[in-house]
Structures are given as structure tokens and as C-alpha cells.
Amino acid sequence: MIRKLNFFTIFLFAAILFAGEKNKNTTILISFDGFRWDYPYRGLTPNLDAVSAEGVTALSLKPVFPSKTFPNHIAIITGCYPQKHGIIANSFLDKETGRRYRIGDTAEVRKSYWYKREFFWETAMKNDIICASYFWPGSEINDAQRYPDYREYYEHNRDYKIRIEGVLEWIALPENKRPGFITLYFDATDTYGHAFGTNSTQVDSAIGVLDSMIGLLRDGIMKLGMKDSVNLIIVSDHGMINTPQDMIINMDTVLTDVSFRLTDTGPLSGIKTELDYKVLREKISHINHVSVYKKNEMPKYFYYSENEDIDDILLVADPGYTITSGERRPYSSGGNHGYDNNAIEMHGIFFAAGPDFKINYRTGTLKNIDIYPMLCRLFDIEPADGIDGTLENIEYILRK
Ligand code: AMP
Ligand code: ZN
Ligand code: ZN
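C-alpha cells for the assembled complex are given below, as produced in the milestone run.
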């Protein structure tokens, strides 16, 4: 009896202690689309510099392959590679149903069917943490069990200041309504990088505009007196590289006497042909800057083989090169991304500052799939089973 009582008392005490430890801070995860790892070194980012001085700066953030927007945002928020989380490209065909996932197709991106893994906001909400999203791929999902408590539907041209005001309104809510986790997204560096290239004045001004949003957000947080209870994590989904016209590889000029079809254009494409794989490989072998792979022979570090929807034969261009065919024009004349995720040009940024992060701490390259387990650790909650991310790779940037 005494033993039982003791055990019960200890259990109760531990439970109270644990409950008392619940993280009451709000963490805002901000994505700057296509903000390359080295953009902060252009002298255009006083607000990122301030975050860096107060918190953690990584040398770069390694994306997953393919280094595209949706595969990476979903990797960040699930801790899994695209072959596991399901969004293997911005646009792809589902072999089972014949339906196409496409980032511009609002009806399709809202279907729960496509998203095979648990979003961080789902994990958090299961643990009674209120979640909010001011844009994030996946957040528009139709399934009431799977979307954040508060959310805004994606609107490409929504004024940036209005986005910041929206987030500030959320963190100003009374504690029982205030989100513990918020996502926020801006496209400018990606949009102008595609259109004008990485060294353009347009990209420079986009860098400045996005940096100034961090300034606005920090001012707002300061005015609310919440600097000590808000963490900012600023990331990008991938980098950008210039794609000059003389680096376009038109497959029509390579496979002159062969009937074939490309499933995409740009850095990565599936290829459909009657040709035997070995023959195809031979025909392409003399072409520099394009590699051809069977999907199960892709470089291991791509983690891009084990998914039904990945094409059986893939062409991968070297960074900066564009694969195309026929009349199909390359996606962008300025810059692009989607290439080998080990190429440094494809790497993004990682900054984090606030009560839970180390101060003035610099580290090497982090992997974006490790962010999900780090968020779980931040809130002391259990990650979903079977993720690809590894907490040990990243937890040292946290203060506790
Ligand atoms: P990418 O082709 O990989 O450069 O994709 C970038 C584009 O993704 C941006 O220009 C946005 O228009 C689009 N995008 C980003 N987030 C969302 C979202 N949550 N819903 C729909 N489209 C988005
Ligand atoms: Zn992107
Ligand atoms: Zn892009």
C-alpha cells in the first residue's frame, strides 16, 4: 500500500512538473522563397543581421531533391523526403488515379489524399498547441483533422505588410487563443530570381523588401512586449542559379531519330520512350551536363526512388542547365532551381532567434528535414513515427 502510494505520489508530482514545463512561447516559421544561402552577405539585410547577432545562423540550409518549392516546404513541415511525404514535384501525375497534382490547381492541392505524412501543425494540435498559417504549402488541406486552427488561403499578391499585421494580430491574442506555432511565407526572391537572374537589381530589391518585413515583425513584437516569448525561425526552401539561353539542352537535337516524350522541362524531367534503357543511355552519354538514371539507380542522397509516382527514367541537368524539347520553352530565362541538392547554389538560409535559441551562435549547413524534429523538441512533443529527419543533427542550436 505504502509502495503504491509512493509510486502514485511520484507520478502525480512528475505529471505536475511536466505540465508546468509546457512551452508557452510562440514560434514563427518564416519562409523566404528562393532566398539563396549567400544573399545575406550582400549588405542588404540589416534586420537579418540583427537576428543573426541575437540568435543562431547556419552557413546554409540544405534542401531536399528536387529543390522545388512544394517538395521542400512539405519536407520542412513533415521531416520527410518527398518520396515519403508524397509531393514529389510541383506538378506530377498520380499513377493510381490518373489525377494530376499541380501547385496552381487550388481544388487539387486542397485534397488530403496527396499528403502522406503528418504536418508539424497536426503533431502540435494533437498536443493542444494552437497553430496558425499565414500561407504554407499543405495548409489549405480540406480535412478538418489536418489543417491549422487559424489559416489564410494563398493569395500570391496579398500585400506583405498585411501578412505581417495578420501574424501580429495572432500573437496579440489572449493566451488561451494565441497560437504557439505560426507559419508565414513570402515569394519575392523566387519570383524576381526566375525573371531577372540572381545578380539583378530586382533580386537585390526583393532581398531588401523581405528583410524589411523581418524589421516590421520584430518592431511589432517589441511593441507588444513579447520579445522574450517569441521565437523567429527564418528559412528558405531552396536557392537559385542563373539559367542562360546558351545552357539550354534541347533533347530533340540529341535524340534525333527517336520518338520520346518529356514529362517536364527544366532541371529534372521524366522521359518516356520505346527505346531500351541501355540504348537510350548510350545515345545520351555523349551529351555533357545531362545525366540519365533509372529511378532506382538515382544517387542515394537524392532519396528519390521509392515512390510510385516518380517516373521510371529520369533526366537530371547540371546546375544552370535547362532540359527541354520541341516548342516547350524553358521555365525561366533568368534563374531556376530544382537541381542537385548538394550544389551550394541550391542551398537556402536558416536563422533563428528567441528565448529557445542559443545567442550569437554560428553553425555549418543544416538539413531542412531536421527542422520538424527540432520543432517537436522545442515543444517537448513526440514526433510522428518514421520521419527522415534526425534531432541530433540540429538540437544543439537550442538553448535548453
Ligand atoms: P517554384 O515553381 O518552385 O518556384 O514555385 C514558386 C511558386 O509557388 C510561387 O511563385 C508561388 O506562387 C507558389 N506558391 C507558394 N506557396 C504557395 C501556396 N501555399 N499555395 C499555392 N501556391 C504557392
Ligand atoms: Zn521555392
Ligand atoms: Zn521558384
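Residues 33-34, 69, 190, 237-238 surround zinc ion (ligand 2) (CB under 6 Å). Residues 23-240+341-397 form a domain with the Alkaline Phosphatase, subunit A fold (CATH 3.40.720.10). Further analysis is deferred to the final report.
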